């Protein structure tokens, strides 16, 4: 007897076959013994270690592959890191918006936010350029989730495939954040929502870190991690000690943190080290303003723009066209209806 989980996974697998496209010639793919293959150009997209591969290398995202393999579960919600609240505050997305929907997680990493989305009842396709997608596939192997290694600038999907797309803390690590964002709305169904969270261009505390980042991305993440495993606890206890000093202590602590910006928050030492590594190791890092991002959303024809509780989060909706659904949308709706009828 098939369980509800089996049915949901079957539905996700069927939907994935419907929406996947060749990254070269954009035609539908066929399954073969190794994964997927394009019948037109012959390009193969194998499944390796549980992940379908639509790129041949990690390129600029290699540091994230190492990072998330090293810290594979540190930020999962089971550690009590309040990921649910962070997801809502960055995107404005509520559980009822995800329940029963097909979602694209752009830059899924080790599955931090896909864990939330699947727990809220969504079927999630996660893409990541780095080998972090392998970690996500392992972490969420019992969920309605599938991981692909793919490039946000050349995603292997048909237009109008997803009910909702989110990307949290990812697009600012691409070579061109604006271009990466503008590549996403084409994959939304009419009436669908896209939500992003980016580094803010309003904060000034990171100016010293920008100086250090002229060097740190050239250092291997393994070496950086070893350095931060010493330096982050050191500055954490320096900060606590200074703040215990009356009057002059707190300003001095603020000055030290301004000159040596590392994560000093929370009670989880591993989280502080990971978050600091995540800041200093990526090859690309950009910061943005609401004015910029509003223009991106508007240029894509998105409507009902709202901002998240945490800067800089924003979401918008693709104009609906429920009376004239696209062929791919009709097929996906038929798949969903068929699976529901078998439940």
Please, could you describe this protein's structure?
Strand 1 and strand 2 (35-38) form a beta hairpin. The chain has helices spanning 4-19, 62-70, 83-91, 95-98, 112-119, 132-139, 177-182, 207-212, 221-243, 249-259, 269-280, 290-299, 327-342; strands spanning 29-31, 35-38, 44-48, 51-53, 102-106, 123-128, 145-149, 162-168, 188-197, 303-307, 313-317. It contains 13 helices and eleven strands. Residues 1-9 have low confidence and may be disordered. The relative contact order is 0.14. It has an eleven-stranded mixed beta sheet, with helices on both faces. Helix 9 (221-243) crosses helix 11. With 343 residues, the chain is of the alpha/beta class. It has two domains: 50-200 and 287-342, Vaccinia Virus protein VP39 (Rossmann fold, 3-Layer(aba) Sandwich), CATH 3.40.50.150; 207-280, no CATH class.
3D shape: globular
Query: What is the number of beta strands?
Result: 11
| Annotated CATH homologous superfamily of the largest domain | Vaccinia Virus protein VP39
**Biggest sheet, open or closed, and with what strands and sense?**
11 strands, mixed
What's the order of the H and E elements? HEEEEHHHEHEHEEHEHHHHHEEH
**Strand percent estimate:** 15-25%
Q: Number of helical segments?
A: 13
End-to-end separation: 11 Å
Low-confidence segments, ≥5 residues, pLDDT <50?
Answer: 1-9
- The Rg value, from CA coordinates, equals 21 Å
Would you tell me which CATH topology of the largest domain applies? Rossmann fold
Mean of residue pLDDT values: 91
Structural domains: how many? 2
- Architecture of the largest domain, CATH level 2? 3-Layer(aba) Sandwich
Order of strands, main sheet, comes to 1-2-3-4-7-6-5-8-9-11-10
Please state the oligomeric state of the protein chains shown. Answer: single chain
> What class would the helix/strand composition place it in?
alpha/beta
Helical fraction equals: 40-55%
Mind telling me the CATH class of the largest domain? Alpha Beta
């Amino acid at each position: 007897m098939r369980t509800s989980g089996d049915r949901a996974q079957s539905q996700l697998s069927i939907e994935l076959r419907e929406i996947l496209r060749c990254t070269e010639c954009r035609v539908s793919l066929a399954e073969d013994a190794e994964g997927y293959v394009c019948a037109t150009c012959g390009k193969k997209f194998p499944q390796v270690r549980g992940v379908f591969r639509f790129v041949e290398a990690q390129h600029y995202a290699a540091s994230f592959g190492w990072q998330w393999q090293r810290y594979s579960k540190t930020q999962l919600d089971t550690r009590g890191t309040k990921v649910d609240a962070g997801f809502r505050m960055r995107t404005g997305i509520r559980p009822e918006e995800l329940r029963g929907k097909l979602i694209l997680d752009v830059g899924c990493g080790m599955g931090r936010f896909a864990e939330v989305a699947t727990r809220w009842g969504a079927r999630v396709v996660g893409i990541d350029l780095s080998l972090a997608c392998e970690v996500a596939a392992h972490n969420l192997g019992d969920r309605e989730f599938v991981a692909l290694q793919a490039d946000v600038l050349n995603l292997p999907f048909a237009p109008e495939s997803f009910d909702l797309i989110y990307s949290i803390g990812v697009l600012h690590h691409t070579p061109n954040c604006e271009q990466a964002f503008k590549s996403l709305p084409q994959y939304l169904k009419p009436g669908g929502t896209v939500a992003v969270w980016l580094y803010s261009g309003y904060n000034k505390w990171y100016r010293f870190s920008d100086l250090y980042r002229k060097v740190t991305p050239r250092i291997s993440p393994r070496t950086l991690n070893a350095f931060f495993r010493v330096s982050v606890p050191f500055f954490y206890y320096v900060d606590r000690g200074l703040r215990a000093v009356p009057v002059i202590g707190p300003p001095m602590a603020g000055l030290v943190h301004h000159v040596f910006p590392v994560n000093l928050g929370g009670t989880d030492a591993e989280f502080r080290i990971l978050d600091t590594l995540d800041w200093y190791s990526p090859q690309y890092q950009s910061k943005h303003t609401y004015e910029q991002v509003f223009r991106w959303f508007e240029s894509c024809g998105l409507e009902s723009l709202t901002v998240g509780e945490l800067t800089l989060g924003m979401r918008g909706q693709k104009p609906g066209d429920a009376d004239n659904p696209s062929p791919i949308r009709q097929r996906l709706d038929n798949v969903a209806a068929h699976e529901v009828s078998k439940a």
